[in-house]
Design brief:
Radius of gyration: 28 Å
Distance between the termini: 31 Å
Structural class: alpha/beta
């Protein structure tokens, strides 16, 4: 909604400085709280062409710029600032939020479909906190795209075969061979420990590596005893991981598995080489490669010389399988940045073979570390998701001990706080930045945390409960004259722009930062000004502001997959 007022400002400026309107729009910003004005335009970059000092340009423009949206236009040093007509601006913003509620702001349907691949763990290994960034980013990006009006198809690609599975099965049949737990969560803990022991054992003696390779070949050859063992343990792994994703609020419409595309990938790569459609795909020392040197992408091995598959083999088959099953406009791969090079090579290889790679996009993200150490399933330096979750819930309950709540309320709120802390910590950082996850810090009710935003929502809900009403009908918005009130409404008006930008750039962190800033503004307002005042007209206006803040906090948290408790 703020975009409408920025555009009016740009329209008013454009005739007087002869500069591209899009550039003008990009330069207009919210005025800082400590200066007079609502929107600001800096004149620094005009100095060279207009051959005047920026503050002189700003002063001259104040006499030329006008619009019905503006109450005043003033020069603040080298800036041209406008003060909006508050009554009409506040009414437009707050009435829209009150009317649209949870639908504020949702974009118009785009008639485009995005196919998103994420939520992609490996079976037979521990699922730890570090894996959550992929699942939570994937889910939040999909929710943002849907909010912006796109149709979204959620798909996952799980590693259920390969060296890690062969290592696990090798260790089990060689050193363990005990009955495994049938409960998925207990199986997870047991299987994770087995994988750690297998990794340590392989390091002890080089001959074990060959034994693991032999098991992998026997699996690929379809040896019944090994395949039956793989299927049974794979099923429990899938049940356990699916339970975790369900608990996190993630929804997956189609699960692909490496085992689904391994043989089709081998056949496809051989066909690509045999077709001679592109000279870059050829045999080299018995292996099939894509020679991408001319494209500055080195050599991409598609099939080993012993005929076994690679990630590249399976990813090629997966790309075509998706096209067979779905009609989509764009395909997004949410995979860690350590695979950046792989996707550049993959997309170029697909392009050379005639695939429309313009619709393919890789969204990379950096890894997660605990504040105390780096996590590694292979090295055993992990805490499983379930153990970490349970510990967080315990600590969240400890923070609620002094609250006047019953045990059931404390349990429910502790879970809301735990998942709010986990999700917000994973989504607050830009995807290209590494996350150092600190449990104690993430659970705090102050600072840059999910519980802080949740608590702000609960505080606003408490005020509204005490008042028992908040209606935008017959409100005198001219009574909202405090600077903190203007700051709140201006920030609320930015919500649509933030959501659109976050969806366009696949950046949930923009929404997380937005609700955090909204919480800061609301708490500053609440500390300074009473809402439930004797002046009924004033109270009604302030209650609408509180209600709108609460609603937008809820909407923003929903985009992040976080619950908004009304009591905390």
């Amino acid at each position: 909604m703020l975009a409408k007022y920025k555009e009016a400002f740009a329209d008013a400026l454009a005739p007087h400085i002869q500069i591209d309107k899009e550039w003008l729009l990009s330069m207009i910003e919210l005025a800082p709280d400590h200066v007079e004005g609502d929107l600001a335009f800096p004149c620094f970059q005009l100095a060279k062409t207009m051959k005047k000092a920026p503050h002189v340009i700003a002063q001259e423009l104040t006499w030329l710029v006008s619009h019905s949206f503006f109450e005043r236009v003033i020069a603040v040093g080298p800036y041209v600032n406008v003060l909006l007509v508050k009554k009409s601006f506040f009414h437009e913003v707050l009435a829209a939020i009150m009317t649209e509620a949870k639908e504020y702001w949702l974009g118009a349907p785009k008639n485009q479909t995005w196919l998103v691949e994420g939520w992609s763990p490996n079976t037979h290994k521990a699922l730890h906190v570090g894996h959550l960034r992929n699942a939570l980013m994937s889910e939040s990006v999909c929710t943002l795209l849907e909010a912006a009006g796109y149709n979204v198809i959620r798909t996952a690609y799980w590693g259920d075969i390969g060296a890690h599975v062969a290592k696990w099965i090798w260790y089990y049949i060689t050193f363990d061979n005990s009955a495994w737990p049938q409960n998925p969560e207990e199986f997870c803990k047991w299987a994770s420990l087995l994988y750690i022991q297998a990794s340590k054992k392989v390091k002890e003696d080089s001959r074990y590596e060959q034994e693991v390779h032999d098991v992998q070949h026997r699996l690929e050859a379809g040896e019944k005893e090994l395949v039956d063992l793989w299927k049974a343990t794979r099923l429990l792994s899938i049940e356990w991981i699916t339970d975790v994703f369900r608990e996190l609020g993630c929804t997956i419409e189609r699960m692909y598995f490496e085992s689904d595309v391994e043989q089709p990938g081998i056949d496809m790569v051989k066909e690509m080489e045999a077709s001679q459609q592109t000279k870059e795909i050829r045999y080299s020392d018995g292996a099939i490669i894509a020679d991408l040197e001319i494209h500055d992408l080195w050599v991409f091995v598609l099939l080993k010389k012993n005929g076994t598959s690679l990630y590249s083999t399976k990813d090629i088959a997966l790309a075509y399988l998706k096209e067979e099953e779905y009609v989509f406009d764009r395909s997004l791969y949410v995979v860690a940045t350590e695979q950046n090079w792989h996707f550049k090579q993959l997309f170029k290889t697909l392009e050379l073979y005639g695939y429309d790679t313009e619709k393919l996009h890789h969204l990379g993200y950096e890894m997660v570390e605990l504040s105390s150490w780096k996590m590694s399933s292979r090295a055993g330096t992990i805490i499983t998701y379930h153990d970490y979750r349970d510990n967080m819930i315990k600590k969240a309950k400890e923070q609620l001990e002094w609250r006047d709540l019953n045990d059931l309320q404390k349990e429910e709120i502790a879970r809301h706080v735990t998942f709010g802390a986990l999700k917000f910590s994973m989504l607050l950082q830009d995807s290209y930045k590494k996350i150092i996850f600190d449990m104690e810090q993430s659970l705090r009710f102050d600072g840059e945390t999910g519980p802080y935003v949740q608590y702000t929502h609960a505080r606003a809900s408490s005020i509204l409960r005490a008042a028992q009403e908040a209606s935008h009908q017959e409100i005198d918005y001219s009574l909202l004259v405090e600077k903190e009130e203007t700051s709140l409404v201006l920030h609320l008006s930015r919500y649509a722009d933030v959501v659109q930008k976050a969806a366009k750039e696949f950046r949930p962190n923009l929404v997380a930062r937005y609700v955090l800033e909204l919480s800061h503004l609301f708490n500053a307002y609440y500390q300074k000004h009473k809402v439930l005042v004797e002046n009924e007209a004033m109270m009604k206006a302030r209650l609408v502001l509180v209600s709108c803040t609460r609603q937008v906090l809820e909407n923003g948290l929903t985009l992040l997959g976080i619950n908004s408790p009304e009591i905390m």
